[in-house]
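[audit] Reproducing an earlier prediction to check determinism. Same input, same settings, fresh worker. If the tokens differ from the archived copy the diff job will pick it up downstream; this log only records the rerun itself.
[audit] input (214 residues):
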Amino acid sequence: MVYPVNAMMQSELDQQADLDLMTFEEFLEWHPDDGRIFELIRGVPQEVNPTGPHEKLSGFLTIELGISIRQQQLPYFIPKTATLKPYRDKSGYKPDMVILDERALVNEPRWEKQSTILNGASAPLVIEITSTNWRDDYGVKLSDYELLGVPEYWIVDYLGLAASRLIGSPKQPTVSIYNLVDGEYQVNQFRSSERIISTVLPELNLLAEQLFKL
């Protein structure tokens, strides 16, 4: 027999589930002994464990965007790692790549000791290189970065893994760039030999296919 769960019982179950989830403060204090890197998604630590091709692409983007930042003499830099705290409780993301505005860090109380960003304006550009976790990149992270006010968010789907409703049919490698307009993201997508257009790095000279042929 299946016994119904009344409202009081459900509330108790929900509270117990919340107790099992890690808070953001606990996450910042938690340091795995084996050196692995994690991010916090809805209270659950998830290991950041990229593949070799993923790391090669990340390194290539760091070089190309770093050169563009220097050539345009912008007050930006690319940290090795940083945590972005969305408004969503019990979450903290470690993007595959993030550009920070050094002028804005004076308004970041957690930056000096915890390399943590609380304001979207401090991170003009965030990049996620998607893999089997593409649902997080196109779903919860997209929503959270938008709400946080990150001006530009790239999803580099170099394997064309996302659903057809997101990258079209037939599916193919796609760079989706979401720009914040009146508080909402608007997307432009780039494929094959198309030049990637960035509002944060307007003079960037990079073709989508350069990311897919590494």
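[audit] rerun output stored. Observation attached for the diff report: The first strand starts at residue 38 and ends at 41.
[audit] end
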